[in-house]
Amino acid sequence: AVVSTQSGHYGRGQRAHSNPLSDHSFDYPLSPGVMEWSKLYPRFKPGDEVTFCDVGCGYGGLLVTLSSMFPDKYMVGFEIRVKVSDYVNDRFLALRQEDEVYHNAGVIRTNAMKYLPNFFRKGQLEKMFILYPDPHFKKCKHKWRIVSEGLLAEYAYVLQVGGLAYTVSDVKEVHDWMVEHFTTFPLFERYDPPQDDKAAQILIGSTEEGKKVLRNNGQSWTAIFRRVDDPHLVNCGES
């Protein structure tokens, strides 16, 4: 079953960012078990699973790169803005006409701050990407940031133990915010990826935002975190 939310703001002029706490119009599954992924991926079959998620995928640059790097992995981008998500969808439809390799990537217009557990079961994801999130500079808007204690609980829920969360920001304060929140959350630890981690190598240069930062001779800060076992459960098992 699919639920549809209603809003009078749907389809208005596009902004660089969108308020994730305001009302929007979304379709989302009641639970991961009823999500019809085959509508998004032409080759999706029973038993397949989406294991990569780009939260706030923007114009889809990272997904385009990951799609060819990991042809056996299904990946999805979540994007809250209407016109941007439409653009990414059209982008993949066009790419599939040119090269079959892009059959494993798609985009869904949704709000990851509200509906992430509706799409993914516990421990489903191997990799999650949070690249160049909206900084929400004003202190009163920090509650809108995509990394918070409450949201980290949801990220930990959908990420499998050993799964990785990749983050990048061109704002040092936002980078420090994400590092502080991830490292103080008991189910994540800072992770230094091996040199053969292909995803870590393309975090900055593959996204449109990252390319803009590079063109302007700006700086980006990267941090990767690994999902770890719940220490309370581990200690209970040892007692």
In brief, what are we looking at here?
With 239 residues, this protein is α/β, with parallel strands linked by helices.
Strand content: 15-25%
Tally the helices: what do you get? 8
Q: Characterize the biggest β-sheet.
A: 7 strands, mixed
- Specify the structural class: alpha/beta
Portion of residues within helices? 25-40%
Mean pLDDT: 87
User: Radius of gyration, Cα only, in angstroms?
Assistant: 18 Å
For the record, give the distance between the C-alpha atoms at the N and C termini, rounded to a whole number: 43 Å
Q: How many beta-strand runs? A: 9
Low-confidence stretches: 5-21
Q: What order do the helices and strands follow? A: EEEHEHEHEHEHEHHEH
3D shape? globular
Major beta sheet, strand line-up: 5-4-3-6-7-9-8
List the keywords.
239 residues; alpha/beta; 7-stranded mixed sheet; two-stranded antiparallel sheet; 9 strands; 21% strand
Task: Produce the secondary structure layout.
Blueprint: E1 2-4, E2 27-29, E3 50-55, H1 61-69, E4 74-79, H2 82-98, E5 105-109, H3 112-119, E6 125-131, H4 149-158, E7 159-169, H5 172-184, E8 188-190, H6 198-201, H7 208-215, E9 221-227, H8 231-238
Parallel strand pairs: 3-4, 3-6, 4-5, 6-7
Antiparallel strand pairs: 1-2, 7-9, 8-9
